[in-house]
Amino acid sequence: MITLIKVETGLIASLQTRLIASLLMLLLSSSCFAEEILVPTPISLDQATKQIIKIDSNLRVLGAETEIFECKLVHVIKVLTTDGRIQHYKIDAETGELITNH
Predict the structure, then answer these.
(1) CA–CA separation, 93 and 72 (whole Å)
(2) C-alpha to C-alpha distance for 73 and 67, rounded to whole angstroms
(3) Which end of the chain is more exposed for a tag (fewer CB within 10 A), N or C?
(4) Distance (Å, rounded) from C-alpha 73 to C-alpha 56?
């Protein structure tokens, strides 16, 4: 079964304009994202995790991931403490410095 849909030329032009504008806004707003992804990190996620374990060998690592925070790559390591609390350590992926632990 073939269905023909009649679309006005003005509608297509309007949609194209909106699509192009949306794509440009996305590209401009995510410039830090694109730059950071292309740069290899001096400190790997594995190295950052090992760094946290060196702080306290009793910590149990529950998970680790790399996120973009304020246009910077940050390794976030989620750990379980000996008293049963969950903490998140954030390490700057470029410098290896501990940013925070919550």
Answers:
(1) 8
(2) 6
(3) N
(4) 24
Question: How buried is 72 (Cβ within 10 angstroms: 0-12 exposed, 13-18 middle, 19+ buried)?
Answer: middle
Q: What is the pLDDT of residues 43-74, one digit of tens each?
A: 999 999 999 999 899 999 999 999 988 888 99
CA distance 8 to 91: 54
Phi, psi of 10 (to 5 degrees): -60, -35
Structure tokens at 88: 């998140």
pTM of the predicted model as reported, rounded to 2 decimal places: 0.59
- Count CB neighbours of 20 within 10 A: 10
- Exposed/middle/buried for 40, CB within 10 Å: 0-12, 13-18, 19+? exposed
Task: For residue 93, give both structure tokens.
Answer: 């992926």
- Other residues' Cβ atoms within 10 Å of the Cβ of residue 9: 7
Tokens at residue 34, please? 């694109």
